Amino acid sequence: MVSLILPTALSGTTTPDADDYVMTAIFFAFVYGIFLFLLGVLKVGTLLENILSRPALTGFTQGASILIACSQLKNVLGYHSHVPYTVDNLIGALFENIGHIHLWTPLIGIPALVIILVMKKVKKTFPTIILVLIVAILISYLAKIEENISVEIVGKVQKGLPAPHFIEGITDRNLLTRSLGSIVVLTFVGYAESISVAKKFAAEHQYTLLVNQELIALGLCNIISAWFQAYPVAGSLPRTVVNAHTGSKTPLATLMACIIVGIMLQFGTDLIYYTPLCILGAIVMSAALSIIDFSEPIFMWKVGKKADCVSFVLTYIATAFFGPILGVATAGLVSLCQVIYHSGRPDVFELGRLPESTTYKNILRFPKAKLVPGVVVIGVAAPRLSFYNYPWFRNGMEQIENDYTHRNNSRLIEEIPVGTSSPPTSHVTTNMMDDTTTVVQLEEQPIVIPTNPNDRLHTIIIDLAPIEAMDGTCLLYFLELKHSYKQKNVAMLFANVKHNVVRSLKKTGLVTTENERTEVFSSIEDAVHYALGHSLAAPTKTETLDDKFPLLKIFTADYNVDEVNLITF
């Protein structure tokens, strides 16, 4: 993909017939390598990986596959065209040149393509590509196909390894200024191509992909190779496919490939000379076609994830029909839209108290959850409240507040237990009349806060349990909300607030040191108790033995008796 868009990237700086064309391509490789290296060192690769969704990356990979396959049509069928690398242009060029197709070229290229594809289905590890390449070179050499039937071959390749060479333009600030935008685009396309194909095979072979490490390696490859007159490279989709299908398991395969390429450049350029271009095109096309797989978008559609399916389709169309540059931009845009759509629409709901517990749950999911008269407890399912989701949160709060007057009275809780009295389990009393001793069994008495079903809304409790942080927009909204509630004589309390959120609330003045204990609570239950106007230690009035028999206190002064079952003497 980088090779496909490199001419376009260079066109903004130089022209193919200019003397500095090759030098500029080498300069691109050097700066491009620095950018990739910095992305890896600064851990930006992981951030970009998190931003780009899997459907978007898959769509880019599939679009790139069909684009690469179509780009080889001219080599496999034997015609010449110079059109922008998009599927519609490449297919259009095929129909325009259908009368100029060289007869012998497809007779060699198409059978080779079919053999490679069929053998991949039969046995992937069989070295079909190597055998096809060797046979094709032998036929080309022995039959002199270039001379006899005019089939294009690779031709002369410069012998030997390139010597180190100073990168011209490395000190030219004007060149950097003119080419910076193109190199940035090239960097993101190289990143998308490398990481998308790497993630595909990482998932297929079940190994962990270290994105930043990959970027550092790619960056160093481009930086070092630029000193040996190389142009920008990235993780190649076709080469990766060929590498995987030949049974490669470790980077040792790539090292061996490098050694073999070096040996061929030093001693085997005469063999490379006779390689038919249609065979190379067939190899690249077979690798690209083997990548095409629509199982993921079909699965997403079946499980009802329409947004993911749309993300795949948009990225696929943009890459295939508008080029890899727009494909990368579309992948980033649709991924960002997905993030904003899902995180910008947090679930806002009212909480109710489960029977015989202090747990509060979503009343829509838990029909048995009871509502507290005069109090609305609001929950939100979001790790962060920020500028992009606070409007949705605000609208949800307003809707719940407006629905207060339409509450179902059957769901209102009549009283809230706040604990029990704690007397001894038993108490010994003495009857002074007959000098007998009686053991009186004591019972724990529940302490409850009664509620009034006709109470107006006087308290809003916001459960911030899942909230890790708030930005300034949300804090300003809470300040405005608090002022609005104050005018309505409605209290706003917070429950389950994390330490860093409390700190933010204090800095904005929403919570002060003086009112922290009356506005921020460690649990919803504590906030409800406070809202109903009772402290946890305030028991209700109960009848005791002292109330029934005042003189009994004289005889039981040494005991702590709060309440007993009355015994008739």
From TrEMBL:
Its main location: membrane. The chain crosses the membrane at residues 21-42, 101-119, 125-143, 175-195, 215-234, 246-265, 271-292, 313-341, 371-390. It comes from the Eukaryota. It is a multi-pass membrane protein. One of its GO terms (cellular component) is membrane. It is found in: Membrane. PROSITE patterns: STAS (PS50801). One of its GO terms (biological process) is transmembrane transport. This is STAS domain-containing protein. It comes from Planoprotostelium fungivorum. Residues 385-531 form the STAS domain. Keywords: Membrane, Transmembrane, Transmembrane helix.
